[in-house]
Amino acid sequence: MSTADNHYFQYKGCNFVSAIYKKEHLEQLEHFEIKDSDVFIVTYPKSGTIWMQQILSLIYADGDLDDVQSKPTMQRAPWIEVPNSNFPERPSPRLNVTHLPYHLVPKALKAKKGKVIYVARNPKDVLVSSYYFHKHFALYESPKNFPDFFEKFIDGRVEFSCWFDHIRDWCTHKDEFNFLFLTYEEMQKDLRATIQKICNFVGRQLDDEKLDSVIKHSSFETMKKDPMANYEGIPKKSPGGSFLRKGTVGDWKNNFTVAQSERFDKIYQERMKDLPLVFTWDKE
Ligand code: PPS
Question: In tens digits, what is the pLDDT along the chain, a chain of 284 residues?
């Protein structure tokens, strides 16, 4: 990709925002030691990351809300690719999050140590959510306009590069990991069932009361009001706007033209035809 303005740098084929990430840290994290108790949420940006950080930390809190309500999500489950994530020193069980593509995660994870929860979201909604976040977040390049951002997204000229490559590489290599695949849309449709799936996967059981509490504290409405789960303090380009923007399925319909949608569908079919994935594109 063109990095004329140095907004991004490339590391092993993946685009990173220069203001946040450091090549030396990315090199080191490939060699991090992994423990069986480590859990990694893996997402392409704007696929439900903070939602899963909130859910997972609530599950591990086992009904004790003090920690969850006193620490922001990014401290409860930090990004391993952010230089100050402090991964090696943190006490177990370590909850983590990453947007990294398959080929850049700690190599030891591939030996089935630790657990990976991959959360995917239909890419039209990912694109739209990402467009608005680029307009909102001060450290990100402002999109020229929606059509221009659309082209960049399709070409992978965005942070963490191409959505199609991210999901393909993770899904085709899933058997190298203890791997749970979830979608944003299934979380929307049946959050209780999704939380139960996560509990089974990580080996934590919650009684009904604790399960209800996780559901309550991870609802869009509760998180939007919760300063520990809504990123209200991040640097913004202008007042107003919110990280928890709409939290729905199908908002792409309010933003894509018919021609953009048809073009996206064609590219999706070409790039995804041999992957057995089914996305929900509209509210059910
Ligand atoms: S990031 O920047 O990659 O960490 O963003 P990420 O957290 O992956 O995605 C942000 C979008 O997730 C929505 N969100 C939720 N939707 C439903 N319920 C809950 N609880 C929830 N929490 C976050 C958030 O609103 C962003 O989507 P959009 O479509 O922009 O609203």
Answer: 444 468 999 999 999 999 999 999 999 999 999 999 999 999 999 999 999 999 999 999 998 999 899 999 999 999 999 998 899 999 999 999 999 999 999 999 998 899 999 999 999 999 999 999 999 999 999 999 999 999 999 999 999 999 999 999 999 999 999 999 999 999 999 999 999 999 999 999 999 999 999 999 999 999 999 999 999 989 999 888 889 999 999 999 999 999 999 999 999 999 999 999 999 999 88
Q: Is 73 close to ligand 1, i.e. is its CB under 6 Å away? A: no
Asked if residues 237 and 136 have their Cβ atoms less than 8 Å apart, the reply is: yes
Place of tokens 């706007």: 241
Q: Given the DSSP bridges, would you call strands 179-183 and 115-120 parallel, antiparallel or unpaired?
A: parallel
Say whether 99 is catalytic.
Answer: yes
43 lines ligand 1 (CB under 6 A): yes
Domains for the chain: give ranges and CATH numbers: 8-272 (3.40.50.300)
- 231 in ligand 1 pocket by Cβ < 6 Å? no
Measured CA to CA, the distance from residue 96 to residue 74 in angstroms comes to 9
The CA distance from 113 to 125, in Å, is 32
